[in-house]
Specification:
Length: 153
Amino acid sequence: MVDPKKYQAKSPRELKKLLTPLQYAVTQESGTEKPFENEFWESTARGIYVDITTGEPLFLSKDKFDSGCGWPAFAKPIDPQTITERRDTSLGRERTEVRSRVGDAHLGHVFEDGPKELGGLRYCINSAALRFIPEKEMEAEGYGEFLSQLDEK
C-alpha cells in the first residue's frame, strides 16, 4: 500500500511555477492532451509512473498496454487507494474521471473495455499528469519498494 502521508499537495501558485502550461491545464483544469502526440502513449520502458503534482506512485510499466487510444493505458493502479473516481458528464455522456488521491490532479478516465485477461479495465491517462521514473532510477528517487512489483504477474 502507498502511504499518502509521504506526499503533499501543492498550492496552485506552486504548481504554476513547477508545471508546464499543458501539465497545469490537464491536472488542475481537467484538460486533455492530444492523442498520439504525448510523451508516454507508446513507451515500453520499465519503471514507475507517479503523479506529476505530488510524486505519489500511481502505475507500474508492467500494467501498461497498447489500447490504440493514443494515450497511456493501464490495467490497474499500483494501489487502488491512490486513485479517486468522479462521475463526469462534461461531453454529454457519462464517463468516470480518475484523479490522484493526494494532489487531486485530473489524470484521465477509466473505462470497462480493457483486456479481460488483465481485469477488464482501461485507465486512459494523460501523459501530462505523469512523471516517469525508469527502473534504474527508482531506488535513488525513493521508489525502491516497488522494484519487486515490476516482475509480478
